[in-house]
Design brief:
The chain is of the alpha/beta class and about 290 residues long. The chain has twelve helices and eight strands.
């Protein structure tokens, strides 16, 4: 399996009481597919998976899988703090008929590279699903460095890595070291043009929740420069901090109201909303209404 195109780590809508709004999630799944995404990641970082109980993970994944109905592949994010927890999350994804996993390093624990490799292989072996690793040390505190990857790459069903470390030197280094044994997937919104210019063919991008047209445009060599320039202000503003709150505010501005986030996050401020509105106006046709 090779991952192609734009995969959206879909947001989790909450109602005013803080409960998952399954109706809105089903509707937003349709919105994403109608706007041309090539795949969906349920319970990822942008879906606030870290704040969901196991029952809530079940509700989100089952809703997305049912609504997608095979039109696009659905991956499930896995990010347990322990191997047992991650295995349980992976088992849930398999039971709910997900097409694969996106597996992050366990946050807070700080395993050694060898411990990380053992953890990853245990989780992947437990379910036998195609897996994308998720390298985001800024959130987990644990990098997928080459010492760990040397043990992991080539293991059954580990097919790619979403590179969100922010270190662009890893693109040529990993391509040279692992070649086609590990697909390098863009995981950086503001730096997406650099990934595509070096031949990346898949982008798992949280802002695709709001900007699917721009994401598709950036992946296309003919429109890449224009699309990226149009939305660069949005990408940089959201990546500067408060990513999830700003992304949900942007989705709301573009026609699908999902303003609520789960604590400890707080919803976008009026100042942030006003800035996003200005940036949307500057982006023009590359930030159209979602509905």
């Amino acid at each position: 399996m090779k991952f192609q195109g734009v995969y959206v780590p879909i947001i989790t809508p909450f109602d005013e009481a803080g409960n998952i709004d399954k109706k809105a999630l089903a509707e937003f799944t349709d919105v994403m597919i109608a706007n041309g995404v090539d795949g969906i990641v349920a319970v990822g970082t942008t879906g606030e998976a870290y704040a969901l109980t196991i029952d809530e993970r079940h509700a989100v994944i089952s809703t997305v899988v049912k609504q997608a109905a095979g039109r696009v592949p659905v991956l499930a994010g896995v990010g347990g703090l322990s191997t047992n927890e991650a295995v349980g999350q992976a088992a849930l994804a398999k039971r709910l008929d997900c097409d694969g996993l996106m597996l992050a390093a366990p946050a807070y624990v700080l395993p050694t590279p060898h411990e990380l490799a053992v953890h990853v292989k245990a989780v992947v072996a437990s379910v036998n699903l195609p897996t994308v690793l998720y390298d985001y040390p800024g959130r987990t505190g644990v990098p997928f460095g080459v010492e760990a990857l040397d043990e992991i790459v080539g293991f059954d069903n580990i097919l790619g890595i979403k590179e969100a470390s922010g270190d662009l030197t890893r693109i040529p280094e990993m391509t040279a070291r692992y070649g086609d044994k590990l697909q390098l997937i863009c995981g950086a919104d503001a730096d997406s043009k650099d990934f595509m210019d070096t031949g990346a063919t898949c982008w798992i991008g949280g802002m695709a929740n709001a900007l699917p047209k721009a994401h598709t445009g950036i992946m296309n060599a003919e429109t890449r420069a224009e699309a990226h320039a149009a939305v660069a202000g949005i990408l940089n503003f959201i990546e500067a901090g408060r990513y999830i709150a700003k992304t949900k505010a942007l989705i709301t501005i573009l026609g699908f109201p999902v303003p609520h986030v789960r604590g400890p996050l707080i919803a976008a401020t009026q100042e942030e909303i006003d800035t996003l509105k200005e940036l949307v106006a500057q982006a023009g046709e590359w930030a159209p209404s979602l509905v």
